[in-house]
Here is the input.
Amino acid sequence: MASIKEQFEIPGKLKTWAYALIGIGGVALLLGMFTQGFSKDEHEQVHFWGTLMYNTIFWTLVTNAAMFFLCFSTMAQAAWMQSFRRIAEAISTLVPVFGSITLLVLLYVVLGEKHHIYHWLDAEAVAKDPILKGKVGFLNPTFFIIWTTLAIALWSYFGYRMRQISREADENPMDAETAKSFNIRSMTRSGFFLVWFGLTVASTVPWLWLMSIDAHWYSTMYSWYTFASSFVAGMALIALWVIYVKNKGYLELTNAEHLHDIAKFMFAFSIFWTYLWFSQYMLIWYANIPEETVYFKHRVQGPYKPIFFLNLVINFLAPLIILMKRSAKRNFTLVAFMAILILFGHWIDFYQMVMGSLMKEHVTLGWLDFGILGFFVGVLILMVARSLASKPLVPKYHPFLKESIIHQV
Amino acid sequence: MAQKKFVVGCFDDEKVLFPAVKQVRAAGYKIKDVYTPFPVHGLDHALGMRETSLHTAGFIYGITGTTTAISTISWIFTKDWPLNIGGKPHFALPAWIPIIFELTVLFAAVGMVMTFMWLCQMAPGVKKHHFHKRATDDLFVMVIECTEKTNAEDLKALLASNGAVETDIQVAEEDWWFGTYDNDNENLYKQVAH
Here is the structure.
């Protein structure tokens, strides 16, 4: 295997792009922070912090989805993703980074911003409100901060442990016994992550971070919906990096067969996301109870109508029609295009989830949103590339690697 | 219904089978089929079979199901028998989506099963000649149809030299038929039981 190029070197152009994005995004971020974030006007504050919130939460969950992908594949003893697992690992190294930013933003929102974003922070209003009073055991600042910190810390820690054990496959060839114990230990470590992931991303964290913006409203689909959104975007991100790195002449062991399976995940989970989107929407539409329809009122009939339906077109119709064919899933150019489209689509989805509740009167999508997005994309590009360059691209003694090489769909 | 002459070669290992398939095809013979006890990855490519059209058929069945559901429900609820259900508009698309989805799946699934059965010539009572009983157990059975130019003995030798554990020339019914298997096969069952 000596002939295989397995040490990634960051192309200069990529670095330039990353720095440019960070620069432009950083300027937008600072400009937004001083003109809006710390302004006297309540509206502008909400605009800025809301925008920052949905961006950090989106990118934290998306990068975390890469680790989730690795963990459930490990748990299922899947072999096909071993040839490109370092890509997913590199993406997941961003969880502590984006997680810390999320934590800072949420801390500011809870401790400094008072109750303009989270209505349940207003103690006087809660005291007069029987619904919020009933939720006070869950929606209170202490629990919010503890749970948020714990969630981000443990995602980072369990993810780190998973990445560490994967490095063992770089050093020495394994005999049957070592391979067996390596496999069992990998599965145990992935188990810890998966359980914690279930308790956070698939349930409590979206309730706390996003659903509690509409403190009165609730939906039992909401966490699954958020999870599906971030997971499909995470798979798109993995696909994009695999294609990019492959395009630069690395990852010789990864081919159209692997891409086919990644694209299947993108296709399947786009449908899954739509299933949840629709289940949430239809039940509320059908029952037509004011306390439930309040969430959809300004989204379906108000200013968010175009974004709300654009969301459905980008995230459901486009993947359904374009990714349905086998030949499409094996086409690197088309999958790259769809990956960008899906990432953008779910970013828009997070936009309307947060800003749709904060700025009900008008759509604020503008320079601030795209600037902050640029900042996060720049950080992502730079740090993923660095992480890729810091270790071999192929875990060459991994017991499942051969199965991945001969993988066929 | 036509009887034809076939040369049959049996292999007991995938690793022997694949090079043999390559050699036989390279020698210019057209392989009718290889009967295997389990699905063998990549064998369809090695045999040079074309990609199946079953999924295209499935898509068409699905679209038919969608169209059937939309046109039926919309005709019933807006033209034939409009009802006021909870003050919803007569054309209440969200409420119909589950049914549209179900009919799409139903049409696609049933249609594809039927098409699959048709393509594989499988149905209750339909019988086909078995070139070797152990094709369902542990043998990979390669069948080559003889033309006027085929020298069956040469072909047998070629198969044997490529690792076939058993070779054989059979004159057999090529198509399917309704009814039962002949007495020979019944004897074979007895032999096995013995």
Summary: Residues 41-390 of chain A form one domain. The interface with chain B takes residues 278, 281-282, 285-286, 288, 324, 326, 408 of chain A (CB under 8 Å). Residues 42-75 of chain A form the longest helix (34 residues). Residues 331 and 358 of chain A are 40 Å apart (CA to CA).
